[in-house]
Specification:
The protein has about 90 residues and is mostly helical. It has one domain. Helices cover about 90% and strands about 0% of the residues. The protein is flat. The termini are far apart. Keywords: Cell membrane, Membrane, Transmembrane, Transmembrane helix, Transport. GO terms for molecular function: sodium:proton antiporter activity.
Length: about 90
């Protein structure tokens, strides 16, 4: 029972910090700041999905989290490549 309380607390902390990072995504000031903020939010969402899957005992959600993490990594690489081309042109 104590472990579930810790996981619920972790869930709320992750949601709160995700809201704080959302400010960085919306306000910038630069494109790299926004990209790092978006990657941070996606990573936190993956952790939230993993925590929720443990709390509810629905471990198939971990597969969803892994797929989202892979999409996040590929998306980050694509955005970095875009920024690299944009700065040299």
């Amino acid at each position: 029972m104590a472990q579930e309380g810790i996981l619920v607390s972790a869930f709320y902390v992750l949601v709160f910090t995700t809201m704080l990072v959302t400010y960085r995504v919306l306000r910038g000031p630069t494109l790299p700041d926004r990209i790092v903020g978006l990657n941070t939010i996606t990573t936190k969402v993956v952790v939230v999905i993993a925590v929720v899957s443990v709390i509810r005992g629905e471990y198939y959600l971990v597969d969803l989290a892994i797929v989202l993490l892979m999409v996040n990594a590929v998306g980050g690489l694509i955005l970095v490549k875009y920024m690299e081309r944009r700065s040299y042109d």
